[in-house]
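Section 3.1 - Work completed
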Amino acid sequence: MAKTDILLETGTNELEILEFYIDLPKTESGPEERCHFGVNVAKVMQVIESPQLEHPESAAHPCFLGTIPLRNHILPVLDLAVWLGLERKNNKYDIVIVTEFSQTISGFQVSGVTEIHRVGWQQVLSPDKFMSSFDDSCIVGIVEKEDRFIQLLDLESILADLDPTLGGDFDNPTAIASEAYAALACDDSPTIRAMLEKSLSKANFRHTILHNGEEMQNALKQVKLAAKQENRPISDYVEVVISDIEMPLMDGFSLTKWIREDDQLKNIPVILYSSIITKELKHKGDSVGADEQVSKPDLNLIPEKAIKLIEARKTS
């Protein structure tokens, strides 16, 4: 399976997910079970047969299976079931999903893949509506299909767990605001929200961090109402919007498009970020009017970019 330009037409609030599964063995307490998961196809390079690696005793993390050569890369292979705390049923037909995001190429060993689904972000339900046996920081959404629930994985949280340096150095910001600028930010990942919280706090921002684009949209509607009632400019309430692209209910592209089409909000600087921003996909954010786009390995640069945008607006 080759990766395609899969973010679809910009601003349609849709994505395509690759559904895969992990088979659990029969136990004394129950029969065999199949757990269904999903990941944005834009993060998938290809699917390959498992090299049937064994867990090395010297591995820094028990989910690490080893490395294999792939094209011009040395690919680390991770046992996704181990990271999730599941006992995967051994199968000689296991596969490895090769992903590319956050400027990192990794392989995740699973039991198999099912199909690709095109869904609207409004169909992605919040995981807190369901009981889950996993750490809720790694499940960012649920998609309901005919006879099953597909749990959308936050692969970034897995890499952050394995590499705490992901996202940069938040203790030493590259810039600090001379006054407490007001920022609204949103991300569906608890891991990334924690990074943003630390980064913006260290850089002297007044900030509110929300869970998705729909929450951000509602917050901005309240800002508009307050500005009208108090006869104050929008910039008194929010001076920059910082948004992830992939989020349940409303994605960052759709949010930015909505902001740019609103007469009261259209001048607010917008910074989009994602683990899938590349030179090839950057035009998607440009087309909806994003002022800046940042790849997730460089999250620590967001305050500096926000300060520059805010101060440029003040002097224009």
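Second construct:
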Amino acid sequence: MVTTRTLDVPGAHLSYETRGSGPVLVLTGAPMNAAHFAPLADALPDEYTVVTHDPRGISGSTLDDPTQDSTPELRADDIAAILDDIGADSADVFGSSGGAVTGLALVARHPARVRTPVAHEPPVLEVLPDAAERRAEMDDIVETFHREGLGPAFGKFMTVSGMEPAAGPPPGEPSAQDQADGARFLAHELRGTAGYLPDIKALTAARPRVLIAIGTTSGPLLTHRTSTALAAQLGTHPVEFPGGHGGFMEAPGEFAGVFRKVLAG
């Protein structure tokens, strides 16, 4: 059974879900909402109390000030608040993409709240030797959004990220909520997430260690580069998970199987 709750935090009203029982496991994305993690969550609730949520400003998590930027630090504090709300001292945390950056910030800001942190393809551009060039690309995407709108900006984002349009017939028109979430991401989240500088000292001090994860088919992606570079700075090697950047949606059962092994050590 899935239980949906709303939690008031400074500046926002968070929508989150719990399912299953056992040790707490948080699945988090940015800008991906709870629905994106539902297939993986449904594959895990026999072993865990799985928490999924809409990040602040996305879908069901509303803001007092819609112009407020979303930062990894704010989102990390939100997860800590959710853990407080369910009475959990700590949790295993799986973050993907922007959610992986949230997880890195959570380890740095609230290390005692995280048991095993898994960061799946964090787009931390600042760890790259060509960070200035990559930063300029992100600035251009945001400026394109403000100048030309969501479609052209998102097209540039996909190209810069190394992603290709899905094969097959074109998808239907995005919903009003999808468009709102996309606009929110480009205007108020992309820069803060991609520009986050990981606290290497805090991350290397974490016990158990932070696990950096990459998809087996993510080689062409910018997040493969950032993940590999971050793992090297942490003195570790990335752990491979099935599929690509969205492997937890593509093959949730297989992904869950690898995830269980990773958490078991």
